[in-house]
Amino acid sequence: MNVARGVTISLCLAAAMVVLATAATRAAAADPDGTKIFQDQKCAKCHSVQTAGIAVVESKEGEAEEADDEGEGEAAAGTEEKKNPPDLSAVGTKHDDKFLTKYLNKREAIEGKKHKKRFKGKKEELDALVGWLVTLKDEAAAKAADAARK
Prior knowledge:
Blueprint: H1 2-30, H2 34-40, H3 91-94, H4 97-104, H5 123-133, H6 139-149
Helix pairs in contact: 2-5, 4-5
């Protein structure tokens, strides 16, 4: 009787593990990935994240910069001095999720300047992007990347 009970418990535990693993896989697939969103939203056109292996993707020569929905973006590459946006490897040491969400929606400023472009993805994507950004806390990597870009 004890052997049968042990086998039953083992089978139940194995079944529970399969159900939990399947649920975790589905949840992971459904949750947007902040790194992928960063790249899909073309954040790397301006920002690098050295700790994630993301370098700035240089625009092709003569390629026009898109103006955002408030017309605050540069009209064309070269018409205004190109700024050096910071490497974001340490952004999580400087700003929390609430601030970054507002900043990316142009409702907050850093040193008197709003973000160049308003985030145009879904709320879940913005939440995932910000959730990833606040985990970035490597100040040494950010300083090194910024120094290399100047």
